[in-house]
Amino acid sequence: MHINNMISKKMLINKILLNTKRNLFNVLSIFNKQKGELSDRCENLTSIPGIGAKNCNNFYEAGYMTPESIISASDEELLTIPGVGISFVKKLRKTLGRI
């Protein structure tokens, strides 16, 4: 009986490990998909000086999904985006030749 009990425990542990491995794979797949979507949507926005991988999501979530929408926004509108300060706005306008 002792050997059968050990075999049963080993089978249970293997089953748990296999399920854990599958769950982890599913979570990582979801994360990688979201990461890809984030990098896709940020790719265009990061063409603007001052917008990088870290802050591009703030622009996207505020409704600025294209470089054109950011460029055409007023200074006041841009300043409502989390992380955007007057220095970014000045740099943007200087780069575009609009002060």
Polypeptide structure, described:
This protein has helices spanning 2-45, 56-61, 67-72, 75-78, 86-96. It is mainly alpha-helical and 99 residues long. The model has no long low-confidence stretch (mean pLDDT 80). It contains five helices and no strands. The longest helix has 44 residues, at 2-45. The radius of gyration is 24 Å and the shape is rod-shaped. It has a single domain (2-96), classed as 5' to 3' exonuclease, C-terminal subdomain (DNA polymerase, domain 1, Orthogonal Bundle). The N and C termini lie far apart (84 Å). This is Helix-hairpin-helix domain-containing protein. GO terms for molecular function: nucleotide binding.
Mean pLDDT across residues: 80
The helix/strand class is: mainly alpha
Shape: rod-shaped
Number of helices: 5
User: End-to-end distance, in Å?
Assistant: 84 Å
Please name the fourth-level CATH homologous superfamily. Answer: 5' to 3' exonuclease, C-terminal subdomain
**How many structural domains does the protein architecture include?**
1
pLDDT under 50 segments (min length 5)?
Answer: none
Largest sheet: none
The portion of residues forming beta strands comes to under 5%
H/E element order: HHHHH
GO molecular function: nucleotide binding
InterPro entries: DNA_repair_Rad51/TF_NusA_a-hlx
Pfam family, one: HHH_5
Protein name: Helix-hairpin-helix domain-containing protein
